[in-house]
Amino acid sequence: MSTIKLNQMESFTKFAGLDGAVALVTGGATGIGSAIVENFLRQGSRVVFLDKNVEAGRELVARLTDGAKTIPEFVCTELTDLHSLKGTIESIERRAGPVRVLVNNAGNDDRHEMEEITPEYWRERMASNLDHYFFCIQGVAPAMEAAGGGSIINLGSCVWRLGFPGLPAYSTAKAAIEGLTRGLARTLGPRNIRINCVVPGCVRTRRQVERWLTPELEQVVLDGQCLKHLVEPEDVAKMVAFLASEDARSCTNQTFVIDAGWL
Length: 263
What we know:
By secondary structure, the protein is of the alpha/beta class. It has one domain: NAD(P)-binding Rossmann-like Domain (Rossmann fold, 3-Layer(aba) Sandwich). It has nine helices and nine strands. The chain has helices at residues 31-43, 54-65, 82-96, 119-146, 159-162, 168-188, 206-211, 215-224, 233-244, and strands at residues 2-7, 10-14, 22-26, 46-51, 73-76, 101-104, 150-155, 193-200, 255-258. Strands 5-4-3-6-7-8-9 form a seven-stranded parallel sheet, with helices on both faces. Helix 3 packs parallel to helix 4 (119-146) and helix 4 (119-146) runs parallel beside helix 6.
């Protein structure tokens, strides 16, 4: 592990084992996902990201291509279509090689009240926030094992631990992601595949700022945190890169919280 100074205000940590590794990131076009994509590119990884937002995906590729040694590959995919997801992963592996790092990040945190939820909406929330996590893991595991192992990082959320109102289906799915992580760790361990969960706090993404992060909510968050600054997408991306790397070779079956001490 080495630290490369970029300027007086910023440092970048280069982690072991990521240079040239194929990293697959779901929901990589915006927010935390785009920060994860960018960090892996700086690590020298071959990055493929999945997203259904065509415009944002193309914009990210264009932004990260300028002057870069490697460029990310954007694959427009509807992750809730589980039957086509396996074929998408197989196609990526034929082009890029075995996935050595999988980051399950995609989700949808639209607000909803208990009284408004129909069976159809509940099922859609699970499909958007939980189901594809498992099937992406199932899809990459065989080639990952054959290549000698790898790392899987699942993105959870602090909302269910904090008991936030107004998104019970999302909270349920995010709680289940921690259970999924622990439920697969002993299955994947003998295959030299590590699996961990990263739980962000209130992250200052563009979506959060535009939709929900009012000055009042920001004050609630800061009052609840030990550290009095909002978590940035890059803070999460750095932890993800560490867990993906050989520097974290003995880390598995764990949950890592990045919330400035809110929980």
